[in-house]
Amino acid sequence: MTKRKTFLLAVAIPFFILLAMTIKPQATVLFGKELVLETKAYDPTDLFRGDYVAINFAISDVPKSMVNLSQDKIHNKNLYVSLKQEGKYYVIDQVSDTKPKQGVYLKGKFQDMFNPFDGIDNYRVDYSLDKYFVEQGSGKDLEQESIKGGLVGTVKVLGGYGVLTGIERR
Amino acid sequence: MKRQITKGNFSLVSKELDHFESAALITGEQKTGILEIYEVKSGLNFIRVVVTIGAILVGLGVLSFIASNWDGISHFVKLLIIFGVFGGVNLTGYILSEDNPRTGRSLIYLGTLVYGAGIFLIGQMYNFGGDFPTAFLLWSLGVMPMAFQLKDKYLMLFANILFGVYLFGLFDQGFPYAGWVGIPIVYLAFNYFDKSRLLLFFANLTSLSFILQITLRYEVESLYVALLFFFIGLVMYGVRHNLEPDIFRVQGNILFGVTGVILTIPDLWEVLISVQSTRLVSILFALAFVISLFFLIRKGSLISLIFVCVTIFRYYTDTFAFLPKSLFFIVGGLLLLGFGFYFERMMKSGKGGKIA
Predict the structure, then answer these.
(1) Do residue A135 and residue B68 have CB atoms under 8 angstroms apart?
(2) Are the beta carbons of A136 and B68 separated by less than 8 Å?
(3) What percentage of chain B has pLDDT greater than the value 90?
(4) Are residues A121 and A54 in the same domain?
(5) β-strand partners of A53
(6) A15, A50, A126 member nearest B67 (Cβ)
(7) Cβ of A18 and B125 within 8 Å?
(8) Which residues form the domain of A142?
(9) pLDDT for B68-87, tens place per residue?
(10) Of the residues A8, A95, B68, B346, which has the maximum number of CB atoms within 10 A of its CB?
């Protein structure tokens, strides 16, 4: 290969990495099913991505009674959480370690976490939906809103993968 | 290949050779012959420094602009701008590489930062959750082809550091499989980039952090982790080889120094021995550690001196019982003073030799 061609390749590789990064989330935004979820939020900063509203979805806490799997199949494992609509919001229906054949579901990483404060034994699930990025300085209003009574988040879901597309007042 | 030395050393060598010539030890021909085997290492080039810092500033500005998440323009337009600027600086950099190689290179450096900004922009656009350590892996992957293409060791260093940040960021987030591929690559790069010592230094750091990640992943007891790294440090320090031994010695010395100080913490030993005797074991370890550090100081290791001081300080702040502490320090200090006096006298009367 000539020097020119290898240079072109060296420019093209990062270019394609960037493009490839957008495929899955963009497809989800375009073709995914829209869900509305209950949240709590506050406002920190990330060094490279800027201010965001940290979001804690109600479906991130799964009661232990809802999971019928042995302990070693849960902690730090990716499981499927099926959701069902109850009124305006989507709530947890059931949890499985295989991909559900139908319905709306999200893939998330389970952590065994006992909360000594409320005494409720839950699993903590990471769906990678815990951040909503906002313009610097504008996260405070949402935070205030959240203290007053929670926010709702809109999530697009495609094949277990979710993209957080918006948050708004309840 | 000519032997590369610094400007200062070259002038020293030539001054000494002048002296040899005037003392009729060598001929003028021999002098020129000797000087010809040397080549003065090119130091930092001022223009290169200026344009590189310029590129870094612009790049940080772009990264910061993305982080500001200014909603005056939409994410999509921002992404187009990133693509445009990335393509533009690389193209300009390529065109300039013939006539203005330094500016050209700095534009390519700028391109790698703009590429990083693109990664974080996408993370922002789709609200990726978590700490997003993958960003640094992708950043590193995107920088590496250009580093190899231009055979630019600074770009490779940047890619290596980004990879290290990725490995560190994975703390508690699953196994860093990329390490199995990444670690060999950073050593291959060292070999490919004319055995740059800088790259070896960081390649070693990256592999150490990979080993640490593996131990964390398998939830190894902290005592065993500390002992493992203590041992690795000793091996890096002690084993003789021809591959840049001073780098391995310095890193090994720091590594076993730090882990050695950590191992003087009594609580760490609880997994191995009964709770009553942890204090005794840790103090025995500390004594053996400090004695071996003194042995190394005698061989000229200044870093060991630092760790002796750290260990002493660690014990000074350890407990609030001042009286036993006072006794311990006074007796220890008197012993050292006595030893020093003894050695000093011995050397005066004996065959000479020197400490350090």
Answers:
(1) yes
(2) yes
(3) 35
(4) yes
(5) A132
(6) A50
(7) no
(8) 32-169
(9) 888 788 888 989 999 999 99
(10) A95
